[in-house]
Structures
1.
Amino acid sequence: DVKVTQSSRYLVKRTGEKVFLECVQDMDHENMFWYRQDPGLGLRLIYFSYDVKMKEKGDIPEGYSVSREKKERFSLILESASTNQTSMYLCASSPLRGYSYNEQFFGPGTRLTVL
Amino acid sequence: QKEVEQNSGPLSVPEGAIASLNCTYSDRGSQSFFWYRQYSGKSPELIMFIYSNGDKEDGRFTAQLNKASQYVSLLIRDSQPSDSATYLCAVNTDKLIFGTGTRLQVFP
């Protein structure tokens, strides 16, 4: 079974803090994704990565950055946390495009509250 | 027009009934289609995917795809209270686009 883990289930930070969210997958997937999920807005893609050291912006990258130094690990960074970044953050991974139907497997999520 | 549309619900069905969840999409080039189940406070869990027109069955779940009409549906037979969750439809074009989900309530 695919296992995607996230560093924290719940996180409380203060406005202006730098926040790191870590995601690790153990299935050697090439693709990794960061989403946020808010009531009524559904899943929104923040950033994704198709390879080590490679990143691409999703639909809402503003205020976020990412890092992928190793294939299994994909980090989301909030450079200066703001209250409107309070949300559920979900990491996902999927196998290589062209060899699969792009199904994504999700981690348990991190509920971040910014005060 | 949203790329992937779902009725937000809630859809309420009695235990033992068939629950029918629908999803429409706008991109005719979409190649594959996914259904995820998400319990409150949890992350989405892949139930099944379909990529050819017609039906695909897996246990109590059946996915139906009609590319000409651009809709995909999920039928849940013999619905159980444990099926109560939000069901997300996702459509693969050059990336995976998620609908906002339909909340299903199965009452005893």
Note: The first strand of chain A starts at residue 4 and ends at 6.
2.
Amino acid sequence: ETGVTQTPRHLVMGMTNKKSLKCEQHLGHNAMYWYKQSAKKPLELMFVYSLEERVENNSVPSRFSPECPNSSHLFLHLHTLQPEDSALYLCASSGPSGEDTQYFGPGTRLTVL
Amino acid sequence: AQSVTQLDSHVSVSEGTPVLLRCNYSSSYSPSLFWYVQHPNKGLQLLLKYTSAATLVKGINGFEAEFKKSETSFHLTKPSAHMSDAAEYFCVVSEKFSGGYNKLIFGAGTRLAVHP
């Protein structure tokens, strides 16, 4: 799990809090992804960044705000979340262009009270 | 549109017996297909990948999968299950985009239980 790291691994927050999830990849990849994994539901792609530009936003509520300051780092800023946002949030990366294998981080287990 | 169907939501085997996890896919072109494994409270780990070089793909931990175009299947097998194989397994198809990224379409997952 050293290729893609995520911090924190666990996060508990109230609905009025603001927090951020961090993802870092050490693989020299040029695309990064946020996924949400809820119990009993398939993995949901939330955002895609390619070459630091957001290329996909899959109808994610505005209370989730991604940021990709460079090709190695990806953030997910959280504010005024709802209890149904409790889930495992996974980060992945892929690249270079044409290589479609995605490598995943260990995830952040988020609980919204 | 591409899609993946995992035919079993739960599979239970005894340690030392063979494992078969079934997956069917739908794709309008020759796809990239993957199997990922997720152990409890962990991220997804790549088991193996098919890219048309060979129909029988060998992966980590003794797993392999066979691509059968005529049956649109990509079943995952292992000759002898180990207790550490207990996990959730995802069959995945990839859709490439010209912007240098791809989208993974996940199956619903198969939970493998291994009994002593």
Note: The CA atoms of residues 23 and 51 of chain B lie 16 Å apart.
